Amino acid sequence: MSANPANVPPTAAHDAAHEHPGAGTYVAIGLILTIITAVEVAVFYIPALHGVMVPILLILSATKFVLVVMFYMHLKFDSRLFTSVFVGPLLLAVTAVISLVILFRVLPLYELR
Amino acid sequence: MEHAAALPAEHLDTSTGLTSFKLGFWIFLGSETLFFGSLISTYMVYKGQSITGPYPHEILNIPLTSISTFVLLMSSLAMVLALAGVQQGNRFQGLLFLFLTAALGSTFLGFQAFEFTEFYHKGLSLQTNLFGSTFFVLTGFHGAHVTMGVIWLLSLWVQGLRGNLPRERAQTVEIAGLYWHFVDIVWIIIFTLVYLLQ
After folding, report:
1. What ipTM was assigned to the predicted interfaces of this complex?
2. Mutate to test the interface with B, among A69, A75, A85, A87 (most CBs of B within 10 A)
């Protein structure tokens, strides 16, 4: 590894020096993503699971999302600063989606009662 | 070789110790999450509010979209293998998987073009109902992002063919990869919220 520049915080330089995984890990993640997608489609077609379909699909979808971000986009191995500048707006976006759905879809149901 | 080499370009004399290009691109991706968040919000708020058909359960083709989702996921796998090839100085692997990524992305766009055409022939357009408006805007913007990604990947591939993509320029491929994986994770969300949770 190259020398740490004098004005670089040790943690940042340490994080930047993290290595990316190899082809074996990438293929394994690809296999897991394929299996999760197959399970998602199966859940959609199994009538008995329709009652719990929403939480199951949301969890499976979130799992796929996290796997791609951590391993394929290397956030698990890269600087935490990258994670911060991505996850911050992501949480804001998720909060906005949930808030708008509650405001426009859930609260009107209570007003009708 | 189980681990690809870390990018030497990341050890720069910057205040963060990271390349500004990569940090700036992550900030851009953060802004993109807000962009797609607004489109997804609009789709979710107007979901089930159409007063005329065609309705989602009548028109969405789950088997076809499942295949196109698989194709996009595999393109992400091809993308990381392309990056690993360039990082290791393996020109053949880098070029092969860069082209494969672009080809799989183009295949995904082909599926989307087929789907849009089929929906139009079944009476669903941008102006038909709330479902049509929100669906085409959301998936259309995603498709536009995929199109930009395919053009980007092909330009990198051509550079590689000309010998202008050595190991020292691996970060160029990594940035393109970040963009490509981002369109993949956006589709992961769209596939669940639009297609499976009807």
Report:
1. 0.90
2. A85
